[in-house]
Amino acid sequence: MGQYDSMVNIAIIGIVIVLLAIIFKKTKEEFAILISIAGCFLIFSFGISKLQIIVNAIDTIQEYISINQNYINILIKIIGITCVSELSSNICKDCNYNSVASQIELFGKLTILVTGMPILLALLDTINTFLKA
Questions:
Q1: Positive or negative, the Cα torsion across 120, 124, 130, 133?
Q2: Listed residue (60, 54, 61) closest to 76, CA to CA
Q3: What is the pLDDT, as a whole number, of residue 111?
Q4: Whole-number Å distance between alpha carbons of 133 and 120
Q5: Which pTM does this prediction carry?
Q6: What is the tens place of the pLDDT at every residue in 35-45?
Q7: Cβ–Cβ < 8 Å for 101, 40
Q8: Residue 15: what are its φ and ψ, rounded to 5°?
Q9: Where are the alpha helices (DSSP H) in the chain?
C-alpha cells in the first residue's frame, strides 16, 4: 500500500471516529470522549509504523556520511517526544482542557530543547574550533 493510500485510509478512519463521537455527544458525552481518545490511540498506532521508515532512512543517511550514533539517538528521541506531546495535548484539547494541553506542549518543547542540547553544544564547539584556527 502506498503512502497516499494509507493517508486516505487514516483520513477515513478519522472522519468515522469524529462522526461517531458527534452522534454520542448529544446523548452520552462521556462515550464521545472515550471514542475520541480510542480513535487517537488507534491512529497513533498506525503512525508508529511510519517511525520505522524514518529510522531506516536515518540509518541509510548514516551509511553515506559519518554521523555520531549519539546524535541519531537524540534525533529519534526528539521525534518520539514530539509524537507523544502532540497526541496527549490534542486529547486534552478534545476534552476542553486547553490549559493542560498548553502545559503539555510547553513541557514537550522544553524536553526537546534539553534533549537536543548536546547537539547544540557540539555545534558551538565546532564553531569555536574553527574560530580559534
A1: negative
A2: 54
A3: 95
A4: 20
A5: 0.73
A6: 888 998 898 88
A7: no
A8: -65, -40
A9: 3-25, 29-64, 69-94, 98-132
